Amino acid sequence: MKNILTGIRPTGNLHLGHYFGAVSNWVDLQDKYNTFIEIADVQALTDNFNNPDKVRKNVKELTLDLLACGIDPKKTTIFIQSLIPEIAEATVYYSNLVTISRLYRNPTVKTEIKQKKDLFGNGESVTYGFLGYPVSQAADITMFDGQLVPVGEDQLPLLEQCREIVRKFNSIYGNTLVEPEQLLTKNTRIKGLDGNEKMGKSLGNAIYLIDDLDTISKKVMSAVTDPNKIKKDDKANPDVCMVYYYHKLVNKDNLDTVCSECKNGSRGCVACKKELINKMMEFLKPIQDKRKEYEKNMNLVEQILKDGTNNARKYAINKMKLVRKNMKIDYFE
Ligand code: TRP
């Protein structure tokens, strides 16, 4: 069975964008592959070094969210990045194989530096740790022989950089590391109810898996609809309506009706939004129920994290032996 490795930063709760864009896919993959999910707390600290409480709190929140979505600890190894020192060690060795200019040119890093002006100015005060996180991400993947990495498009430059490191390492020290391939997620990007191309916490348009009826209602009621539809019985174009976009995700059974009624003017936007609110709550219910079960048993959640981290550690220790041997730094072996 091939190894799959993916990671996620513990910086907030999961929203529908994560669900459709990533996590639902991981749930399917765990049956077919040897799956590792890394809770990337070290990576989260690269731009949250000044906020350790946030990262710590979200390690548990994220684990609860993942389990609620159907990640099964019997099939998937969920582990905490900072508790695998071999990842940090590999990062140091790999950092010799990457130039600083190459890191600056990484499109993902470039975009993120721009977004984080508060922290890094216009790039002139970017930290060594942040600039180097693609190197650390290459260590995440290669310490677990991640052959396939399920990612969204925004992560492709990081994966390309990882492949470069692998090739360079293998050409200098002999065949040691596995070169990963991407497994591009279908629904990579979920649009926001506000019409934004992306749903995200920082964009303020996220629908969280833990949102209650009240919160969902407020968010859906303010969704962007066809601007040409003024009166309740005007005909409209569902393809420009964010409410319809979300019906497509959570109300597949009734989609034809929603679409035709919208087009022929027999469906008002308020009624259409109310139906979406109900369908969304129906969609979220099993996830929220499962989460509540786990919340009642936090000892179990902690044990899942401990066991997953122990398993992952064993794998990484073994892999690191080969790395050290091939780098000729296995002095007393
Ligand atoms: N960079 C990824 C993100 O921000 C998270 C991540 C960390 C990751 N390590 C990884 C993804 C390894 C894939 C493989 O979403």
Would you mind describing this structure in some detail?
This protein has helices at residues 16-29, 41-46, 52-69, 85-94, 100-105, 107-115, 117-120, 128-131, 133-142, 156-173, 213-221, 242-250, 255-264, 269-295, 298-326, and strands at 3-8, 34-39, 76-80, 148-151, 181-184. With 333 residues, it is mainly α. The protein folds into two domains: 3-190 and 297-326, 3-Layer(aba) Sandwich (Rossmann fold), CATH 3.40.50; 213-291, Orthogonal Bundle (Tyrosyl-Transfer RNA Synthetase). The strands form two sheets. It has a three-stranded parallel β-sheet with strand order 1-2-3. The protein is elongated and about 80 Å long. The protein starts with a strand and ends in a 7-residue tail after the last helix. Tryptophan (TRP) is lined by residues 5-9, 38, 40, 43, 137, 140-141, 149, 151, 155.
The distinct ligands, each listed once, are: tryptophan
What is the CA-CA span between the terminal residues?
Answer: 30 Å
Mean pLDDT: 95
The assigned CATH architecture of the largest domain is: 3-Layer(aba) Sandwich
DSSP helix fraction? 40-55%
Instruction: Write out the strand line-up for the largest beta sheet, numbering strands in chain order.
Output: 1-2-3
Rg calculated over all Cα atoms: 22 Å
Element pattern in H and E: EHEHHEHHHHHHEHEHHHHH
Name of the CATH homologous superfamily of the largest domain: HUPs
Strand content: 5-15%
Structural class: mainly alpha
Number of domains: 2
CATH class of the largest domain: Alpha Beta
- Compute the number of helices: 15
CATH topology grouping of the largest domain: Rossmann fold
Q: Report low-confidence residues grouped into runs of 5 or more.
A: none
Main sheet makeup = 3 strands, parallel
